[in-house]
Amino acid sequence: MAIGDLLVDVSGVAKHYGEGETRVDALRVVDLQIHAGEVVAMLGPSGSGKTTLLNIIGCIVDPSAGRLLLDGETVFDGRWLRGNLRQLRLDKIGFIFQAHNLLPFLTAEENVSVVLNLAGWKPAAAKARARELLDYLEVGHRAEVKPAHLSGGEAQRVAIARALANRPRIILADEPTAALDSVRAQLVMDLLRKLAVEQEACILTVTHDEKIFDRFDRLIHLRDGALIEA
Amino acid sequence: MNLALKDIRHSLFRFVLTCFGLGLLMTVVLAMIGIYNGLVSDALAAVKAPRADLWVVEANTQGPFAEASSLPSATRDAVARLPGISDAGAITYQTIEAQHGTQTLRLYVIGYERGRPGGPSTITDGRGLGRSHYELVADRKSALQVGDTIRIGRNRFTVVGLTENAMNSGGDPAVFMTLSDAMALQSELDPAAERVRAARGATSPDASNVAAVIARIEPDADVERVAATIRQWKHLGALTQAQQEELLLASVVDRARRQIGLFLGILLTVSAVVIALIIYTMTMEKLKQIATLKLIGAPDRTILGLIVQQALILGISGWAIGLSLILLVKDSFPRRVVLEPTNALVLAGIIVGVCIVASGLGIRAALKVDPATAIGG
After folding, report:
1. Integer angstrom CA distances of residue B359 from A33, B24, B284, B354
2. Under an 8 A CB cutoff, do B1 and A101 touch?
3. At what angle do helices B287-295 and B254-284 cross, to 10 degrees?
4. Which among B9, B295, B377 is the nearest to A51, CB-wise?
5. A130, A132, A136, A140: CA torsion to nearest 10
6. pLDDT tier, B377 (very low <50, low <70, confident <90, very high otherwise)
7. What is the ipTM of this complex?
């Protein structure tokens, strides 16, 4: 695999809750770099700090210390350097969830185009891009269907389309294959890898799904808030 | 893409049902406003109908509505001759019950002098009184029709015309008859009762007295000065039209008015709480979706718009349903329900205000949602 741009650079990032006797170190000093085209799995037992690290990279949780660089831009260095973190997420990051988290009142196509509407795309362009992605992910024929009527695999592909809609270069996924059988899980991971290469993006996935471990370029392990292997 | 409308369309049946429930509550609020207005309007109907400038009543009374008043009928001649008076008429008021078919009607009998002030303000069907005796003009709410006959006291009367919005402060529909018939009605008993009174040697009440004399003044005359002139007669009192209306509202209907007003206030408060609860519940059910929206980059204004727009659509739909329902059923109420366009508009304004304030609770909850909730773990 050719190493591309450095898209995620986590340097000395730590996160603790409370102070004194009540202090809990959710994440000790962590360093992590992910490049364009890389597909990385984050493993670890419950409470090891996986979700905390994912939330920090996703600009949802404030780190207690350290520096965070996303897609060439230093976004945290002791403090957030951007006022509007939601806009930062919209511009740079795509999220894929275990439970898909599709909006139940929107069709598959609208679930994808809503991100583009938020990013300021014209409705017609947003619709065309959403349709293009759904077709690419082979769920174009389900574009007008609401999430309640999609199968697990279809819903996950719509969620992937939504994560990729605004062409982010960093994709964060939380157990994206947990609800899928092994064949579908491997298909989804292959698809993500293909998209990562095509869009020059990187993918960081929290997973416990051993049947897809061979689909990753790298497995990183977290234990008690520390990165023990990379 | 309008997320509020999309969400409503997604659970349309539930939303419509909620709007309908709110609409029923709005119907009650509008009904109370209408009943309140109706009470005031009914109370003033009898006072306003004669289009009088001055009410001449018994001295030291606040008659003829707030207190009983009795004057010799000859007072009318004396009043009519005063400088500044253009027209005057004697008038009597009494409430009676009469049998009509199988129904017992409660009627407000107004006796007036034909060709003088005090008669029905308009005739909507038939004609006015044409003969000196045994004819009636009845309010439509009495259920009497032109050509009907009804026994009142010792005599049978024929309904020759119909009028509208003539009633007393209790809502009893009015019937107009000649002053002489009305005076006879207040003094003459049923034949059997008359025989008992004669056997006791009792005398009948003075049949020549009236309740009041109403007067219209000449365009250039000063109503206060004319009233002051009348008050110089020790046995007479005089009230201007404005004083009579004020007196009626302050004494006769004041408690009922305040009671309904207070109830209306409670109803509006209940409506506000119900709207707030509905909006809050609607928002709480969407917290996970709101967290997802925040996570994918939706700004606060998008979340705020979703909640406020739904609250406004809910409120305005409830108001429209309430207004439609009350307009449909208002004539079925036993008492008059009077709704002015301004009442509906003011309520719409209040509902919009309540919806915006009520959205505050939901907005507060929504803005506090951590986008990390969407990821879980």
Report:
1. 44, 21, 12, 8
2. no
3. 50
4. B377
5. 70
6. very low
7. 0.83
